[in-house]
Write a structure and sequence with these properties.
It is built from 13 helices and 11 strands. With 346 residues, it is of the alpha/beta class. The longest helix has 23 residues.
Amino acid sequence: MVKRFKIAVFAEYVQCRAPKSEFGNETGSVTMKFLYLGRERGRAEALNKALSRSQTTISLAGTPEAAFFKVLQEDIQAVFVDLADDSDINGAEVIANLCSLDKQVEIILIAEPGKVNPLGLENLRRCFGFITPNIGEPLNVMVLHQLTYKVSLRHRMDMLKTSAVIDGLTQLYNHAYIQRQLEEDIALLSENGEDLSLVLLDLDNFKHYNDTNGHPAGDKVLRKIAEILDKSVRKIDYAARYGGEEFIMVFPGANLWTCLQVAERVRAAIANTDFEFGHKQPMGFVSASFGAAMLDEQMVTTREMLIQIADQALYKAKRGNRNCIWYYQNGDYHEYTPAGDLEQTL
């Protein structure tokens, strides 16, 4: 179920995630090109009005085919897909086709919640979010503002690739940034009664891989791991290189159950990837161990405590069979299995 309140928290969260010390809160001088896919010209005009304070241009496409052509031919940063009223646009098909393009395009759905939910979580995960047909609603305006902020910020990040935020080898966030960001996320989400969970993962026997095959080969593994992580998280989540062969995934608004499901997908993806020298590893393939934890109102309330507990869970995974996931819940540590009896706190 998509919750409207979640979008408000997410909108504030996106702003919180930005490196404010470098870029401030303004969208800057970059001109953003957006596209409206639909047939309600009045709605497109309302979008234009709502975005009038930012430097944006909005073009129109009446059919999905016309929209795809424009995205391919022009530098479109965001597409608004109008599914409201009696629209005959196939939302799931449009999302799939836009995501198949080798372009960074944000997708925003225009629909009532009842028309968004049937698209499924996998499709919704690919979208920036959704707004209701009454474009001028305050919550919609907030989401639009955060969209322009994110697009503008991405433009600057693409140009600067600042070492203060990005790890040079993997192109994920780095350790210093993740520490600052977690502090802000925890403050924001705790205040709004939202969940936050995270996973630490460490490549098993990675020193053996480097010593046996050389550091350039090890670097290729790290870059591939980063690619797997980046493809596994939602747009509102983020992954980072925590240090050496250790990585972290942070899930704002997600409970421990969701976090563990993603961790299992990542664990399986790493184990099933055919790395060049994976067969030389002690287990016969490249693997990783995981430690997961979630904020709660009693035991785990700070960044330091959350990371420490996840790190202890990771330690137990490394001391055990490796290539496995351990998590902390209700004062104790447990090994996770997909068919296990984890207490779901939904």
